[in-house]
């Protein structure tokens, strides 16, 4: 079932969240960190915040910022990957991005990697960091664990998504749009793309960035490099503190679990209401047809 089908359009209407006003850019976009997820993205976010790049937007913001602009990300994803009128190409303007991330001067993780080419074109004066993992095998094992086995393969997470609006959009934006398209997966399984082709998709993504960005505007960097090359590239003083190490395996799992736990009471209540109504309707039908 295509993502432009009446079914998904109806679901987006049914689960619609209040739309916050579009943001307006007041400070220029300065840094785009376009490396793939599980490539030190949260450590890099914390480092940039320490260096004064406030706000630095991360994939967690898509899920947890208040108010949520998550529906805007779905619209941009649909424009990029599910637009029959695109003529085979997609342009997303700075104004379209700014409506969601206009308060940010740097961006990393999902937004930057999924829309890397579009952001590089939209913000031609921003410096670009290609954050990578030193060991490609470890990167692949990490994304398989955290994106596939802990989330995509969990039917309970999928089930919960139907009983709370925020959960539905969390699943919709990442599991149906961003990760599926970034990793060229089938509609039914992230494993089909990430499991089978993840490493060459990583290599191809890096090659695309190198081809799009002039060398003087690009830094290839990994967490092990620490402050020195990052600060030299950005023209900043090296802070007198250790480089931040964030979002390791346990921290990532806890953040997902905490997010689900906060909404579990609403999920259970809505499940009981739904199943109670279904039982009531079936009982009424049974009485009528006996």
């Amino acid at each position: 079932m295509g993502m432009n089908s009446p079914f998904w359009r109806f679901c987006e209407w049914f689960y619609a969240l209040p739309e916050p006003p579009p943001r307006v850019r007041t400070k220029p976009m300065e840094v785009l960190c376009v490396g793939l997820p599980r490539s030190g993205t949260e450590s890099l976010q914390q480092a940039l915040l320490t260096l004064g790049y406030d706000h630095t937007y991360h994939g967690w913001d898509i899920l947890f910022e208040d108010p949520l602009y998550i529906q805007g990300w779905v619209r941009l994803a649909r424009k990029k990957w599910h637009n029959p009128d695109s003529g085979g190409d997609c342009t997303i303007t700075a104004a379209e991005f700014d409506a969601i991330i206009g308060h940010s001067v740097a961006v990393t993780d999902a937004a930057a990697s999924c829309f890397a080419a579009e952001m590089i074109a939209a913000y031609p004066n921003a410096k670009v960091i290609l954050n990578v993992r030193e060991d490609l095998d470890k990167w692949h094992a990490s994304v398989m664990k955290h994106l596939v086995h802990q989330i995509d393969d969990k039917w309970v997470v999928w089930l919960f998504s139907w009983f709370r609006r925020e959960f539905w959009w969390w699943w919709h934006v990442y599991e149906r749009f961003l990760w599926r398209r970034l990793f060229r997966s089938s509609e039914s399984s992230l494993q089909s793309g990430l499991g089978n082709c993840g490493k060459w998709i990583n290599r191809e993504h890096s090659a695309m960035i190198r081809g799009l960005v002039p060398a003087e505007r690009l830094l290839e960097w990994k967490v092990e490099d620490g402050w020195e090359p990052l600060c030299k590239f950005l023209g900043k003083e090296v802070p007198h503190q250790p480089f931040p190490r964030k979002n390791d395996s346990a921290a990532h799992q806890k953040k997902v679990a905490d997010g689900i736990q906060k909404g579990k009471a609403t999920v259970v209540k809505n499940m009981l209401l739904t199943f109670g109504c279904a039982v009531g309707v079936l009982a009424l039908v049974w009485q009528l047809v006996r």
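The radius of gyration is 21 Å. The chain has a mean pLDDT of 89.
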